[in-house]
């Protein structure tokens, strides 16, 4: 019985942390880092402020935890780009994966965009380190495919940034997208459009 007790507490702690992070994501997305408060997060989570402070040192710690986890999620599809794969399949697969992240995680995308617009005060080091290194590595792979004549000539880093811009737009500017499309679901049409766009751009 004693052996089982710590496992129960661990499950409860993991659940409470997840509840706090989900609540904080909504509060930060709605009010920004500066406008959000622990009281708002507690109200959204259904937990008291002291309970939240049991799990996190403060508002900034929650915000940083969210952003660090998000950056890792955002980079996973780029890490998955296979240098040994078919270039068009790999690049279009990356486009679709990024668009799917925007569809499934719109609040996370907007939170990340807000941090970047504000000058990346909390994750600037990550951007200049891990992100820059990964983009440089995958850009070399893409440019290697171009040099081998397997895709059209392209600047790999700018291609990656174009993919970010064209996929994350649907989450970060969702209100504008809904207005322009008269509230029609944009995702299937966006996927077809981006497939066509990048295929025409990169085919030889």
Give an account of the 3D structure:
Helix content is 79%, strand content 0%. By secondary structure, it is mainly alpha-helical. The protein folds into two domains: 1-56, Arc Repressor Mutant, subunit A, CATH 1.10.10; 60-202, Tetracycline Repressor, domain 2. Helix 1 (4-35) crosses helix 6 (106-117) and helix 6 (106-117) crosses helix 8 (156-172). The longest helix is centred in the first third of the chain and has 32 residues, at 4-35. It starts with a helix and ends with a helix. The model is unreliable at 1-7 (pLDDT under 50).
How is this structure best summarized?
79% of the residues lie in helices and 0% in strands.
Question: Which descriptors would you attach to this protein?
Answer:
disordered N terminus; mainly alpha; Arc Repressor Mutant, subunit A; Tetracycline Repressor, domain 2; 2 domains; 0% strand; 204 residues
Proportion of residues in helical segments = over 70%
What's the count of strands?
Answer: 0
Q: Distance between termini?
A: 67 Å
User: Percent of residues in beta strands?
Assistant: under 5%
- Average pLDDT confidence is 91
- Class by helix and strand content? mainly alpha
Please identify which CATH superfamily of the largest domain we are dealing with.
Tetracycline Repressor, domain 2
Uncertain runs are 1-7
State the CATH architecture of the largest domain: Orthogonal Bundle
Global outline: elongated
CATH classification, class level of the largest domain: Mainly Alpha
Q: Sheet bearing the most strands, described?
A: none
Count of helical regions: 10
CATH topology of the largest domain: Tetracycline Repressor, domain 2
Radius of gyration: 20 Å
Tell me the number of structural domains: 2
How do the helices and strands follow one another from N- to C-terminus?
HHHHHHHHHH
């Amino acid at each position: 019985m004693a052996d089982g007790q710590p496992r129960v507490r661990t499950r409860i702690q993991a659940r409470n942390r997840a509840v706090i992070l989900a609540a904080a994501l909504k509060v930060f997305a709605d009010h920004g880092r500066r406008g959000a408060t622990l009281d708002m997060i507690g109200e959204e989570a259904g937990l008291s402020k002291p309970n939240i402070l049991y799990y996190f040192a403060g508002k900034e710690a929650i915000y940083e935890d969210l952003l660090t986890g998000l950056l890792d999620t955002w980079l996973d599809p780029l890490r998955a780009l296979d240098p040994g794969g078919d270039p068009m399949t790999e690049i279009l697969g990356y486009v679709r994966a990024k668009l799917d992240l925007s569809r499934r995680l719109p609040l996370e995308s907007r939170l990340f965009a807000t941090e970047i617009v504000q000058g990346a005060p909390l994750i600037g080091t990550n951007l200049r380190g891990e992100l820059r290194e990964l983009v440089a590595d995958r850009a070399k792979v893409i440019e290697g495919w171009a040099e081998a004549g397997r895709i059209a000539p392209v600047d790999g880093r700018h291609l990656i940034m174009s993919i970010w811009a064209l996929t994350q737009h649907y989450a970060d500017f969702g209100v504008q997208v809904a207005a322009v499309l008269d509230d029609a679901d944009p995702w299937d049409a966006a996927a077809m459009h981006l497939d066509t766009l990048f295929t025409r751009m990169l085919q030889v």
